[in-house]
Design goal:
The chain is α/β, with parallel strands linked by helices. The protein is built from 28 helices and 24 strands. Helix 4 runs antiparallel to helix 5.
């Protein structure tokens, strides 16, 4: 019999129950026991749901209160010294301090760095390690959650981040190599695996996603040494899980490791199946990732069944498991909650619960169960209906993309010639100050938006409310003394959803939530068809805000690559073509903002690095069309209009030439958590344009003071000329409160003024 399994399930709950429980706990409204009770209820519900869907062996320890990489670091006592005293007194408080920072009388702790999980929009906390690091088993989370499921009568497969991936995803604070710590780490893995076996676990899943990346000889040797060591001690059978791409030149390594099963992603890389079948030793379990764990379309089950039957034919009676391509962490929970989607569109979709149904159908069909043909025919028709639907295709949009030329992606003159024109238009001081765009979305703002959507607040009254909020925000910025203002984005629900709602080719779910980090959840738009802009989207609010002040007002847009990456994207055409369509829609908006008198326009691209393929050989093709798309959106304006962009929580060293190729006049980046480390790439490259290194970590509730920001700016001025530097937070202020925002921005402006004084004195 073919088994159905799963690599991981969404943590947040179908209605974001975990988000609400976390934020209630952080506000001090509920205690740790209440938070843990909510978490236990979610785990029980999800295990039962998976079993009801026909999953033979669901995962455990895939749940996290914040992040699974942070869980791993905490589990193995990789706790930086600054958190150590708190961890001894209150482990949960220390855990959240590592994630979010902590500031209260007598305690001021910075959070760990945060960056993207491979090429997804999920963020993980980067463990901090050092030479001589000691590891120890701290707590028993994997063991406790395995026992928790077993008490419900459900056998699970505990999930752990594998030792080599854990080290390679970490950073060291002293310049040593993380893999030097492998021998110190392995005994703790052995201890945990032995405890799981003693508890009755039959299988354990070790996630090693770095196996789909380019590995050097040291990493390959680390895999061989690590798994040879783990094999020597008692342990459950090990499923080595890879995902997000093909094993390629790491296939022989993965197949030779002494494990009992191997999972491969056949959605991202179906072409690897033949090689996997040849390389995998007889008797080893092969887990086929056949349904897409990262998108929401119904899967082409006929194609998946062909792959499964091909594998069955080559393996005979060898054990075969069917699974999603990766953890379902990246998908919403349940399509049945979508009551407002039209029937046609809803028929094209599958959320996590429905993907498990698809896997059960594939397994039953593979095993020759009666009654599967009708269900397969229904699935086939749903896929074909989407392909044929006239709402998917727009000939005018396709023609406009086909007519693009190199001139459409090129500013009229180089930045050096644009700079004096922009300086004359904006009249800014050295170290100019600005923010990234959004200001606090208070409960009052969110309630007004909800009441308007529900028809309980008239459009005219809602518009008047937004005007008052915008004016208050402008006045607040003037009082604080910022140089380039923003309108605050009170009309926007989300930096991608807001634009998608005004573009043709997009649709929206009611409960299609996925986790971005911690309690931060996003509801990605669904790009189902050709994209175009029927009317201006942001001009009204930028123009209104500019009418309130003599200071420059910055227009705020989300860039084409980020709109693409942070949406559920159609899979019936190349992503590059969809991105160009979005870029043309944004180009129209940029041109309209300029015509409305907006002299500075920010086109955010925080997802540029995120979309980078995991293999270097594929980078040039992606970066070529990604940079082109940004330039299409920005290149229709005159030389005096200043184009900004923003990027956050990504490493730029290896793509700095492409960042420069965007030709944005100003780029703002996240640097406060890394203490300006990310600026090194800009200095080594001699980045030609202006840079705003973030000096305020908005993902933490702590408020830095002026001296801390001055210290960061001095570090920045050591590597970049002062004339190139702007002063700004790391990211938008939407999630922060007004009190902390005022305090932090006041300190930011004071820091900029101090730097100006130092520059004059020098």
């Amino acid at each position: 019999m073919t088994s159905v399994t799963n690599l991981g399930f969404p943590r947040i709950g179908a209605r974001r129950e975990l988000k609400r429980a976390l934020e209630s706990h952080w506000r001090g409204e509920t205690d740790a026991a209440q938070l843990q009770a909510t978490a236990a209820g979610l785990r029980a519900r999800h295990w039962k749901l998976q079993r009801e869907a026909g999953v033979d062996l669901p995962p455990s320890n895939d749940f996290s209160l914040y992040d699974h990489v942070l869980d791993t670091a905490f589990l193995f006592d990789a706790i930086p010294e600054r958190y150590r005293a708190l961890a001894e007194r209150d482990p949960l408080a220390a855990y959240f301090a590592m994630a979010r920072g902590l500031q209260k009388p007598g305690i001021d702790l910075h959070a760990l760095e945060m960056t993207k999980w491979f090429d997804t929009n999920y963020h993980y906390l980067v463990p901090e390690l050092h030479a001589g690091q000691r590891f120890a088993l701290r707590g028993d989370k994997p063991l406790a959650e395995y026992r928790e499921a077993r008490a419900l009568g459900i056998e699970t497969r505990p999930v752990l981040l594998g030792p080599v991936s854990f080290l390679l995803l970490s950073k060291t604070t002293d310049g040593s190599h993380p893999l030097d710590l492998l021998d110190a780490l392995l005994p703790v893995y052995v201890q945990l695996l032995t405890a799981l076996k003693d508890a009755g676990a039959q299988w354990v899943q070790l996630d090693e996603p770095v196996l789909v990346q380019d590995l050097d000889d040291a990493a390959r040797a680390a895999f061989e040494r690590a798994y040879a060591h783990l094999a020597e001690a008692p342990h459950p059978d090990i499923l080595l899980a890879t995902y997000f791409g093909a094993l390629d030149d790491n296939l022989a390594l993965a197949a030779a490791l002494p494990v009992q099963g191997l999972h491969v992603d056949l959605v991202r890389a179906p072409e690897q199946l033949d090689a996997v079948l040849r390389a995998l030793p007889a008797g080893r379990v092969l887990s086929l990732g056949l349904v897409d764990g990262r998108n929401i379309w119904r899967n082409p089950l006929d194609n998946a069944l062909i792959l499964a039957r091909y594998a069955r034919g080559h393996r005979g009676d060898g054990p075969l498991w069917l699974a999603p391509s990766c953890s379902l962490l990246h998908c919403p929970v349940d399509l049945t909650l979508e009551k407002k989607l039209d029937a046609e569109l809803r028929g094209w979709l599958a959320f996590s619960r429905q993907k498990l149904d698809e896997l059960r159908l594939l397994a039953d069909a593979l095993d020759g169960h009666a009654g599967t043909e009708a269900a397969l025919a229904q699935a086939r028709e749903a896929v074909e209906a989407r392909r044929r639907s006239p709402r998917v295709h727009n000939a005018a949009v396709k023609a406009r993309v086909a007519a693009l030329t190199a001139a459409d992606a090129t500013r009229a003159t180089p930045h050096a010639q644009r700079l004096p024109l922009q300086a004359a238009a904006l009249r800014l001081p050295p170290f100019p100050t600005t923010t990234i765009g959004s200001f606090p979305q208070t409960l009052e703002v969110r309630e007004a938006r909800a009441r308007n959507k529900a028809g309980k607040l008239a459009d005219a009254d809602y518009e008047a409310f937004l005007e008052r909020q915008t004016e208050q925000c402008v006045r607040e910025q003037e009082r604080i003394g910022l140089d380039v203002l923003v309108h605050g984005e009170f009309e926007r629900n989300d930096m991608v959803e807001y634009f998608g709602e005004q573009l043709d080719g997009f649709a929206f779910t009611g409960n299609g939530w996925v986790q971005s980090y911690g309690s931060r959840c996003v509801k990605p738009p669904v790009i189902y068809g050709d994209v175009s802009r029927p009317a201006p989207m942001t001009v009204r609010w930028s123009q209104y805000a500019q009418s309130l002040t003599d200071k420059p007002m910055k227009g705020m847009l989300t860039g084409p690559v980020t709109v693409l990456q942070w949406s559920f994207v159609r899979d019936d055409q190349e992503r590059a073509q969809t991105c160009r369509q979005i870029a043309l829609a944004l180009r129209d908006e940029v041109n309209d903002l300029e015509a409305a008198g907006i002299a500075a326009i920010q086109i955010d691209e925080p997802a540029l690095r995120e979309g980078l393929p995991l293999r270097r050989a594929q980078w040039p093709a992606y970066l070529g069309w990604a940079v082109e798309a940004f330039r299409i959106s920005a290149s229709g304006v005159g030389d005096a209009t200043q184009i900004h962009t923003h990027m956050c929580y990504a490493q730029f060293n290896d793509i700095i030439d492409s960042v420069a190729a965007l030709d944005a006049d100003v780029i703002s980046i996240e640097t406060s958590r890394s203490r300006m480390e990310l600026l090194d790439a800009f200095a080594r490259f001699d980045y030609p344009n202006q840079v705003g290194p973030g000096v305020y970590d908005i993902h933490s509730p702590r408020v830095p003071d002026r001296s801390e920001m001055v210290d960061l700016l001095r570090k920045a001025a050591e590597v970049l000329p002062a004339r190139k530097l702007w002063v700004n937070p790391d990211c938008g202020l939407k999630t922060r409160g007004w009190a902390e925002t005022r305090a932090a921005l006041t300190a930011l402006v004071e820091a900029a003024r101090e730097m100006r004084g130092e520059a004059v004195a020098a």
